[in-house]
Amino acid sequence: MNLRHSSSSIALALAASLLVACQSLVGPPVSRPSPPPSQPGTPQPAPGTPEPQPQPVPPPPPAPTQPQKQFRLSSASAALVKQAHAQSGKGDFPAATATVERALRIEPNNPLLWIELGQVHLAEGNTSQAESMGRKAVALAVGDPNAQSAAWRLVGDALRIRGRVLEATEAYQHANQASPR
Amino acid sequence: MAKSRRPFLRRLLLPLLALLGVAVAGVGIYCYYLDRMVTRQFEGRRWTLPAQVYAAPLELYAGLALSGDDVEQELRRLQYREVEKLERPGTYRRQGSRIDVALRAAQFADEARPAQVLAISTDATSITALRDSKGEEVPIVRLEPLLIGSIFPIHGEDRIVVTPDQVPPLLPAALKAVEDRKFDTHHGIDPSAIARAMWANLRAGGIAQGGSTLTQQLVRSYFLTTDQTLSRKFREAVMAIALEAHFTKADLMNAYINEIYLGQDGQRAVHGFGLASQFYFGKPLAELDLSEVALLVAVVRGPSYYDPRRRPQRVLARRNLVLKILAEQGVISDAAAKAAAKRPLGVLQRSSGGYYPAYLDFVRRTLRRDYKEEELTQAGLRIFTNLDPRAQESAEQTLEHELARLDRAHAAAVKKRAAKNDNSQPLEGAVVVTTPQSGDVIAIVGGRRVGYNGFDRALDAVRPMGSLVKPFVYLTALKTKKYTAATIIQDEPVDVQLRNGTHWRPVNFTKEVYGPVPVARALAESLNLATVGLGLDVGLPNVTRTLMDFGLSRKPVEVPSMLLGSVSVTPIEAAQLYGGLANGGFRTPLRAVRAVISADGKPLRAFPLEVSQVADSESVYQLNRMLELVMERGTGRAARGVLPPNLVVAGKSGTSSDQRDSWFAGFSGSHLAVVWVGYDDNSPTEFTGSSGALTVWARLMASLHTTSRSPPVPEDIVDVPIEFTTGLRAAPGCGEDVVTVALPVGSEPPFKPGCGPNGAQGFLDRAGEWLRDMIRR
Fold this sequence. Notes:
- The structure holds two protein chains of two kinds.
- By secondary structure, chain A is an all-alpha fold.
- Chain A has helices spanning 2-26, 75-89, 93-106, 111-124, 127-140, 145-161, 165-178.
- The longest helix of chain A has 25 residues, at 2-26.
- The radius of gyration of chain A is 19 Å and the shape is flat.
- Chain B is an alpha+beta fold.
- In chain B, a hairpin with a 4-residue loop joins strand 8 and strand 9.
- The longest helix of chain B has 42 residues, at 2-43.
- In chain B, 47% of the residues are buried.
- Residues 757-762 of chain B have low confidence and may be disordered.
- Chains A and B meet through helix 1, helix 2, helix 3 and helix 5 of A and strand 27 and helix 25 of B.
């Protein structure tokens, strides 16, 4: 399954790149921007109504221009996250939240911290904030497949617990596409 | 006759005796009543403890952009004293790039931390390492939060209660020596002191000296009014004796130290030495040195007569008298007294003492939803806020400085206006600074007179937002996917017939018509006609929806003029709206308060960070790229000369009709600031958003330790160079007036004729990148 996925994405990438290349060569005929291809990156869930047909999510063409990144925690953040895990373990979620927030003030653009904060919310049962934090992490994790995957998994977990199974499945698929595990 | 008198007298004697008996009994009962009352009240004494409000603590960690000098400045802000050799908490020692600090014990929202020693290593720009007393590296340490004020009740009594172990031993000794030499032995009153005072008063021909013991002073402050009548003196004496009979001297001394009145700050009455120490010196009582203790003891005699800030000479003389008495009484040595007498008063100026009424106002409003007024003013809560003292100071100073400059620059117009209106209200302003990712409000300035507790414009001035609304019109258009930054729209005359039959015919600021323009230029140059056309096309209800999603609190009247900013907001609301943009389409409710804990350190209430996505990342990224263009070449370009050369920021100016309101809202990678400038009476100003509020904004941003915007580029979005005027695709070295916009992949506009060869170049580049990418896989 995973293998098939990646081979098909390579093919797609090839096709997409050729297309783009041709377009540049010929000079684009578009006078009005054509509607962009469906964007699996941001599913807009219609609240309440389950998506009728979310299943066949087209694998997104891997953007060939995105540089690969790998987010890491600074040593200050790492220490705070460790402390937050201990607090979470004792069930003291407000303290854990406050501790991760201290790290976020230092590194607000680090998706790993938003994922941590989302995990605390998930553990304390605040699934809507967990989902939002996951989406925030997705937006920040561009270029880092591992972080992207973890962020989507958080979104998926939050949705699954809320019973939004189809959307959750979709999120898990994004997670797998970002970084198969 | 003489005979008949006797029985009369005898007859009179009996009732007289009875009367005397009743009187004695009455006095006895009264004394008993006073005794009971004073004992019960004193036993159950709980000072009403106003909630104490703290700024955000500064987090220190390796990599933080603070030089050694910066660190030192932060320590001084907390009144750490430089010493040769580290001793008690509250001191530091600097040796070049290394600073050793004896940190004070501190209470944070989530933990109490004991005093500890910390070694801070720095280089020219930042902290390189932190080590504890054993030399082990520590990843992160907080400085204690700055106390920025308290929420005191209407009657204005404010205090910080100290326990005996927080009192320097010198203080009780000095109080006894100066105010009540027989405190340790008397029973509440000191007849010899009274006699001495009476003699002095007789000689002076009025009341010049009080013979009150500390106990009497305590009674007076605690139970009685200060009128000087005989009956009050009597009650005071009885109650003092009663207190002495029931309580120990140590108890009474501690009560005195916490009770006594020591200063006034507007409506706020400073009670107790704990608060007085903060109020005059900005540090804990335990850290005061001899000259500082002597100053407080000097103030006891009359806090308004001996006001150290207003009457420094008078206070200096009395402080030195106190020192002399202390030496005479053998409390200190002559040498110590002489040395201390040479020291300056050392009292903080009020502005640096940190009193931020506009910020406290916001804190109070936040908490009023959860707490009753009495809880805030009496229960000794500790409130931890997001105030950043550095940012707050910058905001205050910048606003004050720039408004004065604007007043000078437009002096002629101001004079004319004053003559016409017969009033010369000064130009006013408001500033809100936030860190948008966390939703923290870190500074609020409510007006020009800093520290003046009056009309809070940041929270209460509801003003038309002018072009500040335009980004939300453009965002609504981008969200439809019908428009991109490069789409050509028409800037042409607009004529809308309103429901009441009148016609609305807006014009551009320049009164010109620009014809076909790319969306990016229409926003950067804030073209009114193009914006109205765009807004009408996407629909007013959709624009309203966007605004409400981003946090507009009142639903606006849906008329076409809302597209040009007839919508009214407060500066803090504008900060909320722009926060969603700065945050990539995620709305984060603004927070002044992080947490509230009880007097004994239990967590009571937390205000955690919340986010919700209100717009897709792609649309917001495209919009923000256009708002960067505003700064590069649009209405915000005047900021370029002020900001650090490479700092990438995004923003938008706003000017309401007749230039009554001058706005600027903008953000860097880490900070967002909204500035409003105008007159309280709503009269027109001499400038636009760009010439008024922008200058404040730019100088403020330049003064903050802020970072460039570098948001992640969403997948399916590419940066494309286009011609600013034609919207045609350009290429490096090809095209005029080239700017870079963000566009959805596949929506790139056609190349400018002649830039074709570069198109081929583009293809080669792309192919190369693609190949590299394939190989890396």
